[in-house]
Write a structure and sequence with these properties.
heterodimer; A: alpha+beta; Alpha-Beta Plaits; Beta-lactamase; seven-stranded mixed beta sheet; five-stranded antiparallel beta sheet; 19 helices; 37% helix; 23% strand; elongated; B: mainly alpha; 2 helices
Chain lengths: 588, 88
Amino acid sequence: MQLYTTLSMRPRIQAFFLIVIFLLAAVTLRLAYWQLIRGAELRAEARQQYSDRNIEITKRGEIITADNAALVINRPVYNLGVYLPGFTGEVRALPETISNLLEYEITDPIIATDSLRAPLYLTELKNAASATMSARLAKSNGYVTLAQNISETVKSKIHETGLTGLTFDQDFTRDYPEASLSAHVTGFVGRDDGGNPLGYFGLEGYYNRELTSRSRIEAQEKDALGNPLLTGTWELLPGRLGRSLKLHLDRGVQHAVVSELAKALERYGAASGEVVVMDPKTGGILAMAALPTYDPSRFYLYDSSLYKNPSIANTYEPGSTFKVLVAAAALNEGVITETDQCDICAGPVAIDKYSIKTWNGEYKKDATPEDIIVHSDNTGMVWMQRKLGGDKLVEYIKNFGFGEKTGIDLQEEVASPLRKKWGEVDYATSSFGQGIAVTSIQMVRAVGAIANGGKLMEPHVVDTVLGEDDLPILPKTIRTVISEDAARRTTELMIKAVEYGEAKWAKPKGYTMAGKTGTAQIAVSGHYDAEKTIASFVGFAPAHNPRFVMLVKLREPQSSQWGSETAAPLWFTIAKRLLLHYNIPPDQ
Amino acid sequence: MKLVKLFSLIIFFLVVANVVVANAAVDESVEVKSINAEITNLSNQNIVLKQQIAALGSLTNIQGKVEAMGFVESPQIVSLSSSSVALR
């Protein structure tokens, strides 16, 4: 009997044991699932419940002018969202309520100015916003983003509705108090592939690392009501404000330059125009403007060809403005003196199959260097170049900084390399600024060397990088190109060019100014277009103690193709305003 | 034995102190949260004010207002040399 009982219990015990084993295995597997497979996710969820993670977006650095005016600042914007489990209102009515409070912008100027179409278009925009919100709400039961980049004003209006469960995540966007006044200098801020802010072009592009901020992240344990637990754990990843830039650029000078350039484009019917103003002693850029321009806060509405700063990104043939540099080289080498006379200036100069002529067909036998510069005599420049020699000409062209980047602190600078093989005609045409490609900033810097006693400076837009420790950007002399004596004598030639040259009628009375006009034909498909020119004027003032060196350039002026009748009067008009701005009294 | 009693007493007082401090800290945490919110709010107001000042003080804005008030640019600037200025 005992044996029977033992035998009959064993299978039951075994079965029970197996069941226990099976249940234990199930529990173990389940635990493994929760801890190994879902572990990371659950830990994160738990952390979210007891820990408050606060990400504070910090501001990108600002850009301020030399006179402490804000050129680029930050404006707070908010991304509006709703956490549906915490929302107590009517979800269906939410899109309409919010869309009625949002601000809409009509980007098309034709519609914006049409009193009939504008209200209809605004209604369309509002309906579209409402439909987008409804679609997003229908897809989710948790957090839903309703609108992005809403302003402080709209945020206040939404607050006033008393709706609970709405969230406002703060971000910053760029704001330009002076609108497009300095768009080509500042550049703009877009987004990179990861959606993070990234500077493009100009200062925003060049100084992106300095301007970029780092968000402050704070994680702290919280109680059931969401209040921080001061005795709990606390972690902080400190943020960093973006460094700001203080420029050499003066707001008053920039404004004067832009307004005069705009008037000149209209007056002379030019396709585009540029003005660069630099302090020759430091290389600081006092103003830099190009028209047409774009609005950096709405850069996406403009053709991308407008983004690049033409003064540093486009090359042109400088024409007669280049003559002063060749004259400076010849004076520095001592191969000519002011009393020397040109022995090939009586008529056109033949080189190979080419004939070098003067711009007006008039020839002056025995012309002195002064005559050559004052009357912008091409044959006289060939004489100077021959005195200087081909190799020396190329050496000086390089020393004046052509063929290399100037090192200006703007992103999109280019430099056209100099030709490798030079022929006799290349030397000749380069002496009067044809057949050589330069940028406006290169030209300003080279003439700035004459104004600065022969010292070639590195141009800079930024004066100081402001941050925890301010970092001043000190003036940098690249090299001494010509002697002080040669610079002074070249200046005298340039003063004569202003006093007696083709543009003498436009010069303001009372001031001694040094300058040179230039009219270069534009090369189209390998040939020069007789009708299309680039009119320019480069010079500095006051001539004997220059406060600024300035280049004015007008592309395809319609009223006259000559620099003396278009660019020169504009140069003198701006110069007059700048001299007044800097409180420089007349010296004559 | 005395030493054990002493340590027990210290531990007891430390536990009590911890509870008291933690309790006080919880009260203060509400204040900290409110102060943080106030700081954020004031910072934002500062930024908005700075933006408004910059917009109102911009040369573009001032030029528009000056022109609307009827001011015009002086066509002629007269410079006085030092000899032509009465010193007394």
